[in-house]
Amino acid sequence: MRRRHEASGGTNRELIKQLILGGPEDQEIPPGRQFLYEIISNKRTGFDVDKWDYINRDSYFLGLNNKLDCQRQLAMLRVLPCGQGRNLLVIRDKQVLEYIQLLVARRVNHYVGYQHIKVIGFEKLLGDALQAGRSFLESQPVESVNPDARRYLLEASGSVETLCWLTDARLELLLTEHCGPTARHLMQRLVTRKMYSLVATARLALKDPEDKRKYESAIKKARAFSEDWNRRNPQASDYSTIAEFRKIDYGSGLNHPLDEVFAYSKRGSAGQRCSEKDLLFPDLLLSAIHVSIVRLYERSPGQGRQRQEAEREFLSGLAALGFMKTVE
């Protein structure tokens, strides 16, 4: 890596990009060098310095006691052969518990922070404001709309330039002043913290890997149910609700998070950590491998009967897919 870095004059942007993304996008990673791409973004286990950094930082600001000693973790990592010609980043066997604690901390952060009911409520509110603003801009003559609003919200909304230019303050200004009355009203709600209120929540958990196929079918139908619900409840209707599908897992999708973890013993030999003996203790902490949550929000307070009917229809539709009502 050092030779490649020096040969490029000290700046190898493609290599830096690959290290951040966890490997090249258009070719397979050479097995003997796989460990290089597991330092920053470990797609195999999720045990990487990026996760250590944001878990520690976000846990602090969320008021959670999820401190991880990064220096200790780095000191015990080794690069060892793990079969099939692969050289992988391997943790010490006594690190497995700390790895599990990291997975649990990540999951807790998602539930109480990143995917909290209020966070999602404000996220959907902002999404509706953007949609209303874009619809307004598309309906107006080009010469009559603000050039920045047209450029950054319509023509180049996904460009790197837009991501760098469109700060929170600029986005608020464009949606409030230049994108029509609906976007202005929604942004005023956002600023005054009048978010969409939660009506109901339903959840389904995968606890046994043997049920994976049945679970996959259920969440696929739940996604389709949510999309159909939102088509039938547009923003412009008198009483409007919006359904949102979310997942909370350990970063390994529907797979057990220890499936791809290798650990070495005091003697130096490396092996996988997913035997029945190894899983006796972790399973006390890793309860449900994957949890799917569908939430229903109302865009504006309706009459009691409207809310009750929406809640009943929403929960009965998801109950048919195996989802259970839950309280948040």
TrEMBL record:
<dbReference type="GO" id="GO:0008832">
    <property type="term" value="F:dGTPase activity"/>
</dbReference>
<dbReference type="InterPro" id="IPR050135">
    <property type="entry name" value="dGTPase-like"/>
</dbReference>
<protein>
    <submittedName>
        <fullName>Uncharacterized protein</fullName>
    </submittedName>
</protein>
<dbReference type="GO" id="GO:0005634">
    <property type="term" value="C:nucleus"/>
</dbReference>
<dbReference type="GO" id="GO:0006203">
    <property type="term" value="P:dGTP catabolic process"/>
</dbReference>
